[in-house]
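2024-03-11 09:14:02 DEBUG pipeline.ingest accepted 1 chain
2024-03-11 09:14:02 DEBUG pipeline.ingest length=222
2024-03-11 09:14:03 DEBUG pipeline.predict start
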Amino acid sequence: MTQPETRYALRDGQHIGYQVWGSGPIDVLEFNNGLMISIDETFDEPNWLRCEELLSSFCRLIRFDALGLGLSDPLPAGTSPTIAGWAEDALAVLDHAGCERAAVLGPTGGSMAAMWLAAHHPERVTSLVLINGSARVGRAEDYEFGVAEDLTAAVSNNVESPAVESDVPQDIAIFVPSLAHRVGFREWWGRAARRGASPATAIAFNLVTFSADLRAELAKIS
């Protein structure tokens, strides 16, 4: 398939870059891949491209970069990303794409914003699909199986100087270990990550994800 045209929705005067893949009978809104790699990098990674092509073969797949990431405008000076803001970006994209209701797909980090959208705007969501999702990441007294604080801090600290495990960058070892030694993958991953978010922006998004707690929102999702 040819690369879809990039379109721009507006939220509070800021441009949100999005693309529409396919033309199936249902609409599916994807909260990116859950990472901070722009949707514009999909065509350069065969596994990711195959996944999106399969999805768009039976639906109209709407994909977007949240404000601050990839194709979208930087976050306004003095503001930080929020889970609610990410969901509001999605609403602006749905409106611009002429979509009243959509099935919502939320992988990994994108799952939190997807849950927030379903909880606060059920009239826009027909169904919710979460992949490797969680309502909370960090450990707490009533959430003992969460990730320890020192580990979440290490991930943010390693954005600027990624740690290496057995000659494999830590982020690749965590997210895509099976591709760690495929020719050209590390180069693509590093280039795509740099284009997706600056170090400061990446740290800000990590902090939001690691500090969020959406457990109270779960009862609102039906």
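2024-03-11 09:14:41 DEBUG pipeline.report The longest helix spans residues 83-96.
2024-03-11 09:14:41 DEBUG pipeline.predict end
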